Amino acid sequence: MTRPLKNYFPLANDxxxxxxxxxxKSLAVKDIKIExxxxxxxxxxxxxxxxxxxxxxxxxxxxxxxxxxxNLKEVTPKVKIKIISVIQQFYFYLRxxxxxxxxVMERYDTRKLRKELKK
Length: 119
What we know:
There is one protein chain. With about 120 residues, the protein is an all-alpha fold. The chain is about 60% helix and about 0% strand. It has helices at about 15-30, 35-55, 65-70, 75-95, 110-119.
């Protein structure tokens, strides 16, 4: 017997939980490996909790909210790029699924981080 998904995302409010469930279904349709799917969901969940802590709805997050979150992460440039990529993909999904009208996250520029990787 599998544990309910809600056990994996205990701090998510109802709206965020619904977004996680629907995004998880979209990943399954794309035939993404389960381990990769779990990694994506964990990254997205952590971003959602950050937004919740500041009273920001996931579907109303701004580019500035995203930048603040990324700047708080004390990880290598490679890990930051992965986090950025996953969150950007999630917002592409939200746009395609009609949850948001405009994906402001796609405007985030990773060139500076990519240059740090080449050093």
